[in-house]
Predict the structure.
Amino acid sequence: MAGTIWTAAQTFAADGGKESVITLKMPHRGVIRGYRLAQTNGLLRGATAALYASNQETAPNSEQPPDKFKVLSAELAVGAAKIENHFARISYVNCDGTDEEPQRVMYMKITPYGAGSKTFTFAATVETPTT
């Protein structure tokens, strides 16, 4: 796929010990060529994170298993400040929109370990199709 390269980063907060769902601005479809999840504030206790192509709040997506929409998952190890992959090749399409009204977002479910508020930054490079 030869297309346009899109790059952006978004910073957000999440509380330790609780699952948070973060809406990330991203092209509605493309190939993730690289990504980085970094904890930028708070004790480095680690976290689990997964990126989804649907928020699963409305039918028919709400009736499907979550893994059907999982694009990638990662675990930030205790003491590690970041996890990254600059050689990714992960295709996705946002499943909540239509061709006429595409949804230009993805959803990250993240659960930081430990307690207290923590700040993270998710950055991605996406190759978008030309058609």
